[in-house]
Structure formats: C-alpha cells, structure tokens
Amino acid sequence: MYRNEDKTMVQILSDSSTLYSKSQAMNIGLEITPLVVIIGKDNYREFETIDSDTLLCKIENGAIPTSSQPPIGEKMDLYNQYGKDQDVIDITMAAGLSGTYDSALMAKESCNYPDNISVFNSKTLCGPHRVLVNEALKMAKDGKTKEEILYMLEESAKTDVSFLIPFDFDFLQRGGRVSKTAAGLGGLLKLVVCMKKSDDGRCLEKHSVNRTLKKVVLSIFEEFDNRNVDDSYHISISHAFNEETASKVKKALVEKYPNATIEIFDLSPVFITQGGPKCCAIQAIKIVK
C-alpha cells in the first residue's frame, strides 16, 4: 500500500491472470486472488495447491480440468481489509473470457466500503494484464491518485492486441471459447489456426488459418502493423510447455521490434486448462498516460 502527498492511499488488487503467485505479488505490494482449476470434485488454487507440471501430468493421465474465478468471499475479505481507509483498484482479467470481473462487481456491492472500491475490466489477460498491473503499482508508489491510475488503465487497455495459437481445440471448445465447428476444423485438417481476442475482450475470434507457424506469425505481424504496434509496446509470448514455438516467435519479434520489451512467460494452470497443452499466446500492449 502506498500514500501520496495528499494522504490518499491506493491499494492495487488483481488475480493470478497476471501470472503472479500470491507470494510473488506480496513481495511487490500487490494483493491477488488465485484462479481455480477444477478436476472432478477437487478444487485447486493455482500456484498454491497445483502447478503447471502437476496439471499436465493429470491431463496426460486422463483428467479433464475446468476453471473458475476466485471465490467471491475472498474478494470481499480483501475489499473490507483495504477499503476501510483507502482507495482500492482491482484489475481483473477480461470479462467474458472469465467470470472474475462480474464476481468482483458482486463482491464490491456486498462489501462494507463499496464507494472506495474500483473494479477495472482489463479486457485482457496474461502478459498485458501483468503490464497494466505493474504500471498501476508503480503509479501508486509514485503517489498518483486513483483517477490518474484508472485513466492510464482505460487508455492503455485500448492498445491491447492478443492472439492465441492453440494445438488442442478440445480445451477451447469445452470452455466455450470457440465453436464446435471451428474446433473440429482445426483438428481435422492439422492446420495452424490463430485466434484473436475480440476488441471488447469477451471472446476469441478466428484470425488466420495456415499450414505453417511462419505464415501464422506473418499474419500476426500484419495485424500488429494495422494496429500501429511499434518498439514502444510491451510484447509477451506465453506458452504451455512449448518453448520451441515461443523461442521461434521471440526471434521473429526481436527482428521486427529490436527495441521493444519482449518477454516469455510460462502459462499458469488455469490458462493451460483453457488453451490446452502446447498453446502459445502472442500479445502486445502500450502504456498510455
């Protein structure tokens, strides 16, 4: 928690879509609530009671995981803890791709200090979500007001461009993120299919279908050009046990954007549950103040 010159306090909250564990978050002044993986009757908090290696092992042994947002009661407890005497900004992963945002709104209305809680729909996830949260934390530490931080979040979120290359469509189709027809097409033809997050962040849409990864990456670069992505953007590659693809994509990105910040992340259990093993997300966002 941080205090600015006007004695206004701002606490940043989020969820594990940022790819931060709870302990990692606490070390940088962030509070997060872990997303949940469900296998049969068992619920697992990612980064706490299940990691990606364990999940992959369970999948290989026939488990069919699903995912869920953090418990609403846990959100309410944090809102009551921090909202008593300070402003709170909770930066959630994209509404539509998760119920986290809607659940957070319900927690806000039910907590003791709703006027001090701002719930922000990032309209994104993973790498760009992490970038937004990191900048919000920096601004809070620098004494910026709630309004200044929310303005940054609103304007920066508009620049997000996100793609997903899935390799097992059953996971996307089971989670309702692509249609059964689209899932069947990709799997049947053994093509490399690229999905693009819609501008409102609520769903994934087909972006391109090609026979090689190289052509898919070129189609992503074309869209990056259309969206004026340049070296001022933060670019991330997040993957589910697919270092080979992630490294190839990063090499191409470095050649095109030699001065951009480009990072590779391992996807968390919830995103492996949603995108499937081997999936790879390529995302870009720019901080605007």
Automatic annotation (TrEMBL):
<keyword id="KW-0446">Lipid-binding</keyword>
<dbReference type="InterPro" id="IPR043168">
    <property type="entry name" value="DegV_C"/>
</dbReference>
<dbReference type="Pfam" id="PF02645">
    <property type="entry name" value="DegV"/>
</dbReference>
<protein>
    <submittedName>
        <fullName>EDD domain protein, DegV family</fullName>
    </submittedName>
</protein>
<dbReference type="InterPro" id="IPR003797">
    <property type="entry name" value="DegV"/>
</dbReference>
<dbReference type="GO" id="GO:0008289">
    <property type="term" value="F:lipid binding"/>
</dbReference>
<dbReference type="InterPro" id="IPR050270">
    <property type="entry name" value="DegV_domain_contain"/>
</dbReference>
